[in-house]
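Hi V.,

Quick status before I head out on leave. The structure for the redesign project is tokenized and pasted below; the design run finished overnight.
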């Protein structure tokens, strides 16, 4: 799994702006910020610093001093799911929001400024899967990938892959490629010739209480060891570890129920 995001500066400086359409950030909204920081700090070695005040109680997660994710607090008066949300880069969040609406999606938050770091919107595709749009200013987004503790991949689980892929292709300019898999209803979204995200259609299979949704994969050194830490820290295993084309992966949930996948690359 590779993507089209900008690489970190070799001397540890600010990374280049992400190509529009690139998954560039992931954010989690929770009820208990302190407990969530403790869980992910122990699981991935993250440290935290305050984020933009416009987003309410919010922190940026740092890995070796570089930003990898954001965690905020859910408004107490809104019944929203606790879930990781991927953000896709845009040169103009307002224009992208308009395209989302014109393609049958909805925009529930924004576009709005996040201090001087950028401009964001949060929307959903026609099936209801939630995603974000990020127009960078001072902060391009995730500053490091491909190392343990950093996001590695995002995959959409939905009812039918082709229709969902068409929406994202129209909004973000992707090319589509049927995934090389025994499961026929999979599509890989590509940008400038490189894979950036996956779409998995499950047909009429039940999606439980989640509905269509995005899942973020995080790199780990050893999947089985990471699963042990998840359990010790109060999380749950949702699917047993399995070996696939890209390595060993398992689906887990944190103590508040947010789902994430742990990916150990092939050795």
């Amino acid at each position: 799994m590779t993507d089209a995001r900008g690489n970190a500066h070799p001397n540890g400086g600010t990374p280049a702006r992400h190509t529009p359409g690139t998954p560039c950030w992931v954010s989690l909204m929770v009820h208990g910020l302190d407990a969530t920081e403790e869980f992910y700090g122990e699981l991935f070695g993250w440290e935290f610093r305050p984020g933009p005040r416009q987003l309410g109680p919010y922190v940026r997660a740092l890995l070796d001093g570089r930003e990898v994710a954001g965690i905020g607090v859910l408004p107490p008066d809104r019944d929203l799911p606790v879930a990781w949300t991927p953000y896709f880069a845009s040169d103009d969040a307002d224009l992208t929001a308009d395209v989302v609406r014109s393609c049958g999606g909805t925009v529930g938050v924004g576009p709005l400024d996040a201090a001087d770091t950028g401009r964001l919107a949060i929307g959903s595709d026609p099936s209801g899967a939630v995603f974000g749009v990020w127009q960078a200013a001072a902060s391009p987004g995730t500053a490091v990938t491909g190392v343990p503790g950093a996001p590695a991949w995002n995959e959409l689980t939905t009812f039918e892959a082709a229709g969902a892929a068409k929406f994202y292709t129209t909004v973000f300019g992707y090319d589509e490629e049927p995934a090389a898999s025994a499961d026929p209803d999979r599509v890989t979204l590509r940008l400038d010739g490189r894979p950036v995200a996956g779409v998995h259609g499950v047909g009429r299979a039940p999606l439980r209480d989640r509905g269509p949704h995005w899942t973020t994969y995080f790199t780990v050194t050893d999947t089985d060891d990471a699963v042990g830490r998840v359990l010790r820290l109060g999380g749950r295993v949702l699917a047993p570890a399995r070996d696939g084309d890209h390595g060993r992966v398992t689906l887990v949930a944190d103590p508040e129920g947010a789902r994430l996948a742990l990916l150990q690359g092939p050795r």
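Above is the designed sequence. The domain at 151-264 is CATH 3.10.180.10 (2,3-Dihydroxybiphenyl 1,2-Dioxygenase; domain 1).

G. will cover questions while I'm gone.

Best,
W.
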